[in-house]
Amino acid sequence: MKKTIASIMVMLGLGSSACSQTPRQPEVDTFETESGKMVKFHALVHSSIRIEYGDMELYIDPVTKLGNRTIDYTSMPQANFIFVTHEHGDHYDKEAIKRLTKVGTRFITNQRCADMQGYGLVMKNGDKEDLNSGIKVEAVPAYNTSEGRTQFHPKGRDNGYILTLDGLRIYIAGDTEDIPEIAGIQDIDIAFLPCNQPYTMTPEQLIRAARIVKPKVLFPYHYGQTDVSTLPASLKADGIDVRIRHYE
After folding, report:
1. Fold held by 27-242
2. How far is CA 191 from CA 100, 164, 166, in A?
3. Which of 22, 31, 106, 164 is a plausible cystine mate for 136, CB 3.0–4.6 Å?
Protein backbone atom coordinates (compact mmCIF):
# COMPACT_ATOMS: atom_id res chain seq x y z
CA MET A 1 0.00 0.00 0.00
CA LYS A 2 1.59 3.28 -1.15
CA LYS A 3 -0.21 5.51 1.25
CA THR A 4 -0.10 5.64 5.02
CA ILE A 5 -3.67 5.68 6.27
CA ALA A 6 -4.06 6.10 9.99
CA SER A 7 -7.27 6.76 11.83
CA ILE A 8 -6.39 9.31 14.47
CA MET A 9 -9.62 10.26 16.13
CA VAL A 10 -13.22 9.23 16.48
CA MET A 11 -15.10 11.73 18.59
CA LEU A 12 -18.15 9.62 19.35
CA GLY A 13 -19.12 5.95 19.45
CA LEU A 14 -20.28 3.94 16.45
CA GLY A 15 -23.68 4.80 15.06
CA SER A 16 -26.83 2.79 14.77
CA SER A 17 -29.59 3.20 12.22
CA ALA A 18 -31.78 5.05 14.71
CA CYS A 19 -32.05 8.80 14.23
CA SER A 20 -31.35 10.77 17.39
CA GLN A 21 -33.10 13.99 18.36
CA THR A 22 -30.11 15.08 20.45
CA PRO A 23 -27.63 17.36 18.64
CA ARG A 24 -24.24 15.74 18.37
CA GLN A 25 -20.79 16.78 17.33
CA PRO A 26 -19.78 15.17 14.02
CA GLU A 27 -17.54 12.15 14.23
CA VAL A 28 -14.15 12.82 12.69
CA ASP A 29 -11.80 10.39 10.96
CA THR A 30 -8.34 11.61 10.02
CA PHE A 31 -6.06 10.17 7.34
CA GLU A 32 -2.57 10.98 6.14
CA THR A 33 -1.67 11.39 2.48
CA GLU A 34 1.48 10.03 0.90
CA SER A 35 3.32 13.33 1.48
CA GLY A 36 2.12 13.68 5.07
CA LYS A 37 -0.84 16.01 4.65
CA MET A 38 -3.87 15.52 6.89
CA VAL A 39 -7.35 14.87 5.51
CA LYS A 40 -10.24 14.94 7.98
CA PHE A 41 -13.73 13.63 7.30
CA HIS A 42 -16.57 15.03 9.41
CA ALA A 43 -19.74 12.88 9.38
CA LEU A 44 -22.47 15.52 9.27
CA VAL A 45 -25.65 13.66 8.30
CA HIS A 46 -26.88 11.12 5.73
CA SER A 47 -24.85 12.04 2.63
CA SER A 48 -23.43 15.35 3.89
CA ILE A 49 -19.68 15.24 4.45
CA ARG A 50 -17.24 17.96 5.42
CA ILE A 51 -13.64 17.34 4.34
CA GLU A 52 -10.68 19.30 5.70
CA TYR A 53 -7.62 19.11 3.50
CA GLY A 54 -4.84 21.31 4.78
CA ASP A 55 -6.34 24.80 4.77
CA MET A 56 -8.98 23.79 2.21
CA GLU A 57 -12.62 23.09 3.10
CA LEU A 58 -14.65 20.75 0.89
CA TYR A 59 -18.32 19.91 1.39
CA ILE A 60 -20.22 17.04 -0.20
CA ASP A 61 -24.02 17.34 -0.60
CA PRO A 62 -24.48 19.77 2.32
CA VAL A 63 -28.04 19.93 3.65
CA THR A 64 -29.29 22.02 6.55
CA LYS A 65 -32.08 19.75 7.82
CA LEU A 66 -32.91 16.09 7.44
CA GLY A 67 -35.81 14.69 9.45
CA ASN A 68 -35.26 15.87 13.03
CA ARG A 69 -31.56 16.56 12.55
CA THR A 70 -30.32 20.08 11.79
CA ILE A 71 -26.80 21.01 10.75
CA ASP A 72 -25.56 24.47 11.77
CA TYR A 73 -23.25 25.50 8.94
CA THR A 74 -22.76 28.94 10.48
CA SER A 75 -20.52 27.23 13.05
CA MET A 76 -18.29 25.73 10.31
CA PRO A 77 -15.72 27.28 8.00
CA GLN A 78 -17.04 28.38 4.64
CA ALA A 79 -16.19 26.28 1.63
CA ASN A 80 -13.46 26.39 -0.96
CA PHE A 81 -15.32 23.69 -2.90
CA ILE A 82 -18.90 22.41 -2.73
CA PHE A 83 -19.76 19.20 -4.58
CA VAL A 84 -23.39 18.19 -5.16
CA THR A 85 -24.33 14.88 -6.75
CA HIS A 86 -27.96 15.58 -7.75
CA GLU A 87 -31.05 17.66 -7.04
CA HIS A 88 -32.94 15.61 -4.44
CA GLY A 89 -33.60 17.51 -1.22
CA ASP A 90 -31.34 15.27 0.89
CA HIS A 91 -28.41 16.24 -1.36
CA TYR A 92 -29.09 19.71 -2.78
CA ASP A 93 -29.99 22.55 -0.42
CA LYS A 94 -29.77 26.18 -1.57
CA GLU A 95 -29.72 27.44 2.02
CA ALA A 96 -26.72 25.31 2.98
CA ILE A 97 -24.89 26.34 -0.18
CA LYS A 98 -25.60 30.01 0.55
CA ARG A 99 -24.26 29.74 4.11
CA LEU A 100 -21.09 27.96 2.97
CA THR A 101 -20.33 30.18 0.00
CA LYS A 102 -17.74 32.96 0.17
CA VAL A 103 -15.80 34.88 -2.43
CA GLY A 104 -13.98 32.30 -4.51
CA THR A 105 -16.06 29.25 -3.50
CA ARG A 106 -16.40 26.83 -6.42
CA PHE A 107 -19.63 24.88 -6.88
CA ILE A 108 -19.22 21.57 -8.75
CA THR A 109 -22.32 19.63 -9.75
CA ASN A 110 -24.40 18.09 -12.53
CA GLN A 111 -26.39 20.01 -15.12
CA ARG A 112 -29.70 19.85 -13.24
CA CYS A 113 -28.33 21.41 -10.05
CA ALA A 114 -26.36 24.05 -11.95
CA ASP A 115 -29.58 25.05 -13.68
CA MET A 116 -31.44 25.22 -10.36
CA GLN A 117 -28.63 27.15 -8.64
CA GLY A 118 -28.03 29.45 -11.57
CA TYR A 119 -24.30 28.75 -11.75
CA GLY A 120 -21.72 26.04 -11.21
CA LEU A 121 -19.01 23.98 -12.84
CA VAL A 122 -21.02 21.32 -14.67
CA MET A 123 -19.54 17.83 -14.79
CA LYS A 124 -21.00 14.95 -16.75
CA ASN A 125 -20.26 11.29 -16.08
CA GLY A 126 -16.68 10.70 -17.20
CA ASP A 127 -15.55 14.34 -16.95
CA LYS A 128 -12.31 15.11 -15.10
CA GLU A 129 -11.13 18.39 -13.63
CA ASP A 130 -7.90 19.54 -11.98
CA LEU A 131 -9.09 22.04 -9.39
CA ASN A 132 -5.53 22.97 -8.36
CA SER A 133 -4.57 23.08 -4.67
CA GLY A 134 -3.68 19.38 -5.05
CA ILE A 135 -7.33 18.49 -5.74
CA LYS A 136 -8.54 16.50 -8.73
CA VAL A 137 -12.09 15.27 -9.36
CA GLU A 138 -13.70 12.79 -11.71
CA ALA A 139 -17.48 12.54 -12.15
CA VAL A 140 -18.65 8.92 -12.34
CA PRO A 141 -22.06 7.36 -13.02
CA ALA A 142 -24.64 6.96 -10.26
CA TYR A 143 -28.02 5.46 -11.07
CA ASN A 144 -30.63 2.81 -10.31
CA THR A 145 -30.89 -0.46 -12.23
CA SER A 146 -33.48 -2.53 -10.34
CA GLU A 147 -36.93 -2.87 -11.83
CA GLY A 148 -39.26 -0.28 -10.36
CA ARG A 149 -36.40 1.94 -9.12
CA THR A 150 -34.94 3.48 -12.26
CA GLN A 151 -37.15 6.56 -11.96
CA PHE A 152 -35.42 7.54 -8.72
CA HIS A 153 -31.98 8.05 -10.28
CA PRO A 154 -31.99 7.63 -14.07
CA LYS A 155 -28.79 6.75 -15.88
CA GLY A 156 -26.71 9.72 -17.01
CA ARG A 157 -28.33 12.41 -14.87
CA ASP A 158 -26.51 12.24 -11.52
CA ASN A 159 -22.89 12.07 -10.43
CA GLY A 160 -20.72 10.20 -8.06
CA TYR A 161 -17.25 11.67 -7.55
CA ILE A 162 -13.71 10.39 -7.22
CA LEU A 163 -11.62 12.98 -5.41
CA THR A 164 -7.84 12.76 -5.40
CA LEU A 165 -6.20 14.78 -2.64
CA ASP A 166 -2.41 14.62 -2.80
CA GLY A 167 -2.65 11.03 -4.05
CA LEU A 168 -5.36 9.95 -1.59
CA ARG A 169 -8.24 8.60 -3.69
CA ILE A 170 -11.76 8.98 -2.31
CA TYR A 171 -14.83 7.48 -4.00
CA ILE A 172 -18.11 9.19 -3.09
CA ALA A 173 -20.67 7.04 -4.84
CA GLY A 174 -23.76 9.25 -4.66
CA ASP A 175 -27.16 7.61 -5.04
CA THR A 176 -26.46 4.45 -6.98
CA GLU A 177 -26.84 0.70 -7.05
CA ASP A 178 -24.00 -1.72 -7.80
CA ILE A 179 -23.85 -0.65 -11.43
CA PRO A 180 -21.48 -2.23 -14.01
CA GLU A 181 -19.34 0.92 -14.17
CA ILE A 182 -18.16 0.27 -10.62
CA ALA A 183 -15.81 -2.35 -12.06
CA GLY A 184 -13.74 0.47 -13.54
CA ILE A 185 -13.27 2.27 -10.23
CA GLN A 186 -9.88 1.19 -8.90
CA ASP A 187 -7.10 2.12 -6.49
CA ILE A 188 -9.53 3.61 -3.98
CA ASP A 189 -8.30 4.38 -0.49
CA ILE A 190 -11.60 5.56 1.05
CA ALA A 191 -15.09 4.83 -0.26
CA PHE A 192 -18.51 6.15 0.71
CA LEU A 193 -21.17 3.69 -0.49
CA PRO A 194 -24.93 4.27 0.01
CA CYS A 195 -27.19 1.67 1.59
CA ASN A 196 -30.80 2.80 1.59
CA GLN A 197 -33.23 0.60 -0.27
CA PRO A 198 -35.19 1.17 -2.45
CA TYR A 199 -33.34 4.34 -3.49
CA THR A 200 -29.76 3.07 -3.48
CA MET A 201 -28.17 -0.29 -2.55
CA THR A 202 -29.35 -3.12 -0.40
CA PRO A 203 -26.73 -4.38 2.07
CA GLU A 204 -26.08 -7.30 -0.29
CA GLN A 205 -25.49 -4.93 -3.20
CA LEU A 206 -23.16 -2.81 -1.07
CA ILE A 207 -21.12 -5.88 -0.15
CA ARG A 208 -20.82 -6.83 -3.83
CA ALA A 209 -19.79 -3.29 -4.75
CA ALA A 210 -17.23 -3.12 -1.94
CA ARG A 211 -15.64 -6.39 -3.08
CA ILE A 212 -15.29 -4.98 -6.59
CA VAL A 213 -13.93 -1.57 -5.62
CA LYS A 214 -11.79 -2.94 -2.78
CA PRO A 215 -11.33 0.29 -0.81
CA LYS A 216 -8.98 0.19 2.13
CA VAL A 217 -11.56 2.00 4.29
CA LEU A 218 -15.32 1.95 3.69
CA PHE A 219 -17.93 4.27 5.16
CA PRO A 220 -21.52 3.13 4.53
CA TYR A 221 -23.56 6.31 4.20
CA HIS A 222 -27.03 7.53 3.21
CA TYR A 223 -28.37 4.51 5.08
CA GLY A 224 -31.48 5.93 6.76
CA GLN A 225 -33.16 3.13 8.70
CA THR A 226 -31.30 0.33 6.92
CA ASP A 227 -29.38 -1.87 9.34
CA VAL A 228 -25.70 -1.64 8.37
CA SER A 229 -24.35 -3.08 11.63
CA THR A 230 -23.40 -6.43 10.04
CA LEU A 231 -21.30 -4.92 7.25
CA PRO A 232 -17.97 -4.77 9.16
CA ALA A 233 -18.09 -8.51 9.88
CA SER A 234 -19.29 -9.31 6.36
CA LEU A 235 -16.28 -7.60 4.77
CA LYS A 236 -13.62 -8.40 7.36
CA ALA A 237 -12.25 -11.35 5.41
CA ASP A 238 -11.91 -9.08 2.37
CA GLY A 239 -9.50 -6.84 4.28
CA ILE A 240 -11.82 -3.83 4.13
CA ASP A 241 -11.94 -1.61 7.20
CA VAL A 242 -15.66 -0.77 7.50
CA ARG A 243 -16.48 2.18 9.76
CA ILE A 244 -20.05 2.93 10.78
CA ARG A 245 -20.64 6.60 11.48
CA HIS A 246 -23.81 8.68 11.88
CA TYR A 247 -24.72 8.82 8.22
CA GLU A 248 -28.35 7.86 8.79
Report:
1. Metallo-beta-lactamase; Chain A (3.60.15)
2. 24, 12, 16
3. 164
